[in-house]
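Reply to dn_fold:

You asked what the input looked like. This is it:
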Amino acid sequence: MLRNIPILLVFCAACWAAPEAKAQQSASPRPSADSSGKSSQAPAASRRTTRRKPVRRRTARVPAGSQTRPSRERYLQIQQALVKAGFDPGVVDGVWGPNSEDALQDFQEARGLEPTGRIDALSLIQLGLGPQYETPEPPKSGSGSAR
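and this is what came back:
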């Protein structure tokens, strides 16, 4: 009977350590593999999985009523400004064509802008067609209540 005591102690120690080992094993981020290369964790079919909803990406939207392309009148203004600046856009008719694009490109190059030939804010400002702000009238010096 005394010969079986060491075996019994080893068996009891293994039983007490087993729950702790299983808890550590389930908490580990990587599955442990035995010599056959198979995972010791439960198969994927037994785990509950949830499907993710597809991500809908928002696209930039142009506000209603905003201008996406210059109007014929605006093209006419730009062509007239190019003529006034000394660059020939061809027929000044409000139709933007290759001659107008070439004239704008030459204008941009002469002014030190990137010569793209495309209408952009810096080119419009250089042509004097940039945003126009109304300036408030200065107060009249003749009318005042201070005496």
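The mean pLDDT is 75.
Hope that clears it up.
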